[in-house]
Specification:
This protein has 241 residues and is an alpha/beta fold. The protein has one domain: 3-Layer(aba) Sandwich (Rossmann fold), CATH 3.40.50. 27% of the residues lie in helices and 19% in strands. The chain is built from 6 helices and 10 strands; from the N terminus they run βαβαββαβαβββαβαβ. The strands form 2 sheets. A 7-stranded parallel beta sheet has the order 1-10-9-6-2-3-5, with helices on one face. A 3-stranded antiparallel beta sheet has the order 4-8-7. α6 links the parallel β9 and β10. The protein is globular, with a radius of gyration of 17 Å. Bound molecules: 6-phosphogluconic acid.
């Protein structure tokens, strides 16, 4: 049975998911462990990060024992505001100290031949890392990270990180973890807000294999944080109120 947390609004979702994320990170650091968190881009995720930043002080989280990774990136210059890593780091780094050696944004387009070279570089950096928690947004078309339905990015691949070209969501050039890498995560947490996501969310929760979100799952747990608008198409009996 899917674990779904439903909130009245996007703002409530962002606060609720941030609180649960912080508690889960603190729990995973128990006994001195290093926690690996994979971040996503997207509007609702940035709202979650804004809340998270404000909650860290006094929470017991040790930012020095947290490795931050990214699920996908728009292949743009470092200072382009449309990159996923920039706004996220601006929201988090201002609120608590992040160890640069443990912060792993995907490479930018500066000084790199192409996104295939960047994908290979990131694959090396990632190695066989297993994420404790992997956050994912959801596209209206059922995409996660930069893996799109009916698109070569959704083809089976032996690669941990892929270059994505002609993406249906701009910008067209991207880098993404492959579905196999996402599914290596212990926990996958979906963040989904807005009526335009309702159909994709319904299909994703039901495990529709024709969309990436129908297949992205954690090895231990998959959690859905949704607002009322996004949840409009979910059968009520699947919701935890
Ligand atoms: C990106 C994202 C993408 C995003 C979803 C949801 O680079 O665009 O990583 O996968 O998470 O499209 O984004 P929103 O929450 O903004 O709708």
């Amino acid at each position: 049975m899917a674990e779904i947390h439903r909130y009245g609004s996007a703002a409530e979702l962002a606060e609720g998911a941030a609180r649960m994320l912080l508690a889960a990170l603190v729990a995973r650091q128990d006994g001195g462990a290093i926690v690996h968190l994979c971040l996503t881009g997207g509007r609702i995720a940035n709202k979650v990060y804004a809340h998270l930043g404000g909650l860290v002080e006094g929470s017991g989280l040790d930012p020095g024992r947290m490795e931050l990774w990214w699920g996908d990136e728009r292949f743009l210059p470092t200072d382009d505001p449309d990159r996923n890593a920039g706004p996220t780091l601006a929201l988090l780094a201002g609120r608590f100290p992040l160890d640069p050696a443990r912060t792993h944004p995907m490479p930018s387009a500066d000084g790199v031949a192409d996104n295939a070279a960047s994908a290979a570089t990131y694959a090396k950096e990632l190695g066989d890392t297993t994420f404790d928690i992997c956050l994912l947004g959801l596209g209206e078309d059922g995409h996660v990270a930069s893996i799109f339905p009916d698109h070569p990015s959704f083809d089976p691949t032996p690669h941990a990180v892929i270059a994505v070209n002609d993406a249906p969501k701009p910008p067209s050039e991207r880098i993404s973890l492959s579905l196999g890498t996402l599914c290596r995560s212990r926990e996958v947490w979906f963040l989904v807000s807005g009526a335009e996501k309702a159909d994709a969310l319904r299909r994703a929760v039901l495990g529709d294999p024709t969309i990436p979100a129908g297949l992205a799952r954690g090895t231990e747990r998959t959690v859905w944080f949704v607002d009322l608008d996004a949840a409009a198409g979910l059968p009520y009996y699947r919701c935890i109120f």
